[in-house]
Amino acid sequence: MRNIFLVLALVSISMSYAATINFTASEINTNWTSLGNPRDGSTGTWSVSGSENVSPDSGAKISNIVMGDGIFSGTFRTTGSDDDMIGFIFGYQDMDNHYRFGWDSYDYNGGYADLGGTNGMRVIKEVAGTNYFLAQNSTRWQRNVYYNFSVTRSSSNFNVKIVRQSDAAVLMDYTGTDSQFSIGNVGIYTASQSPVYFSNISMNVPEPATFLMMFGTFLSILFYKRRF
Hints:
The chain is an alpha+beta fold. It has helices at 2-15, 25-31, 208-227; strands at residues 18-22, 33-35, 47-49, 52-54, 59-67, 70-78, 85-94, 97-103, 121-127, 130-137, 147-154, 157-164, 169-177, 184-191, 196-206. Strand 12 and strand 13 (169-177) form a beta hairpin.
């Protein structure tokens, strides 16, 4: 019985271990793939300013590695005078099959509406080129404000969170269940909005090798004790 408790404790401890990948702006600019944005396919040239990736008027950057369970996170802000779309992508298979978050401000010319002409925040699932609402609210982004974003994935469950950095106000906290694109690339994008500055882009994923190593050590100790 004591050995069972030891195994359970080992599993609990090992789950707290994870590998974090922090992407520098230059790595994203060089190694991530530049594509058209998922809203209308238009694209442009990304650049780097210090530790930030600076978007073109429209375009996407798609990661060079895939993520299953884990956390994809980062920060963005815009100084542009327009009021259009800023977003990120996860579970990416291609531009016709993925999940995405899109956000426009629509403060003076209607913004750059997405699915069904909606404005504000929305989480969308796109399958074979058809878009489906998962979540939506009418909150607008503001210029010169830093926003933190995260996508947390665990099996078929995922959470999308947007937090205003200045006061930690949670502007979206959506949890959904869908396993169709449980593994895929991640990315960032803009549609008719520039400049947008993305920074602190990271991926935090479970590290199964850590558990296997610890479990193997435990079995070796257990076998040794039984022999002697």
